Amino acid sequence: MAVKYLEAKIVEKKQTKTPHWGMTADGYTLRGGAPTSWMIRLDGEKKFRRLMIWQFSNAGTCFVKIKGECLVVRDYDMPD
């Protein structure tokens, strides 16, 4: 399966309290990912979407789910 990246522009981000669901007892993420404290808004949308993470050992990969599809978000795509 090929990795798919988010192509839409992120126009805004905000930080919230981190939800506590999505983690296993030993600190790893579930297959569906774990929520982060970050929410992003994409160009042309009004709603914010929760940025999720897959965490394996000390390496994490951030992604957002759009229409059931997981799209990886690169660090440099996040606005300042």
Please give a structural write-up.
With 80 residues, this protein is mainly β. It has one domain (10-22, 29-77). It is built from no helices and five strands. The chain has a five-stranded antiparallel β-sheet with strand order 1-2-3-4-5, with no helix packed on it. The protein is globular and about 40 Å long.
Q: Distance N terminus to C terminus?
A: 31 Å
Largest sheet: 5 strands, antiparallel
Give the integer mean of the pLDDT values.
88
Using DSSP, what is the number of strands?
5
Residue share in helices? Answer: under 10%
Which of globular, elongated, flat, extended, rod-shaped describes the shape?
globular
Low-pLDDT residue spans: none
Radius of gyration, CA atoms, in whole angstroms: 13 Å
Amount of beta strand: 35-45%
H and E order: EEEEE
Number of separate structural domains: 1
> Treating each run of at least 4 consecutive H or I residues as one helix, how many helices?
0
Q: How do the strands line up in the largest sheet?
A: 1-2-3-4-5
- Secondary-structure class: mainly beta
What order do the helices and strands come in, and which of them pair?
Elements: E1 10-15, E2 34-42, E3 49-56, E4 59-66, E5 69-72
Antiparallel strand pairs: 1-2, 2-3, 3-4, 4-5
List keywords for this structure.
80 residues, mainly beta, globular
Give the structure's gist in a few sentences.
With 80 residues, the chain is mainly beta.
